[in-house]
């Protein structure tokens, strides 16, 4: 492979291809690192929230408000709607009325 670069068999286009490859591998490594960090933070928060969610919803709200991970933001949205959402029977009854 080195003869493509050194002997000129590959032409001048080999150097830009090598540069783009190195940049692409750097971006791939950075994204992999970022996703693994995010996954670990979300897993740690879920492990903490799972034990707290058993009966009450006030304590998880305080735990979620202190954290900015993805899982805590999603749980925060779900807990914000808790108590506001109507029962399924009410929603199904409304759909029947709309069809008539």
Task: Characterise the protein shown here.
- This protein has one domain.
- It is mainly α and 100 residues long.
- α3 (58-65) packs antiparallel against α4 (70-81).
- It contains 5 helices and no strands.
- The model is unreliable at 96-100 (pLDDT under 50).
- The chain has helices spanning 2-6, 14-52, 58-65, 70-81, 88-99.
- The protein starts with a helix and ends with a helix.
Instruction: Please state the CA-atom Rg, rounded to the nearest Å.
Output: 26 Å
Write down the domain tally.
1
Taken in chain order, the helices and strands follow as HHHHH
Tally of contiguous helical segments: 5
Strand content: under 5%
**Distance, first to last CA:** 73 Å
> What is the strand tally?
0
Silhouette: elongated
Brief overview:
With 100 residues, the protein is an all-alpha fold. The chain has helices at residues 2-6, 14-52, 58-65, 70-81, 88-99.
């Amino acid at each position: 492979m080195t003869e493509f670069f050194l002997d000129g068999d590959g032409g001048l286009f080999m150097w830009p291809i090598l540069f783009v490859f190195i940049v692409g591998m750097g971006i791939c490594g950075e994204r992999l690192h970022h996703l693994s960090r995010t996954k670990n933070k979300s897993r740690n928060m879920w492990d903490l929230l799972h034990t707290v969610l058993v009966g009450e919803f006030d304590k998880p709200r305080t735990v979620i408000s202190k954290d900015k991970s993805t899982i805590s933001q999603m749980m925060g949205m779900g807990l914000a709607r808790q108590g506001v959402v109507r029962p399924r029977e009410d929603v199904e009854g409304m759909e029947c009325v709309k069809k008539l």
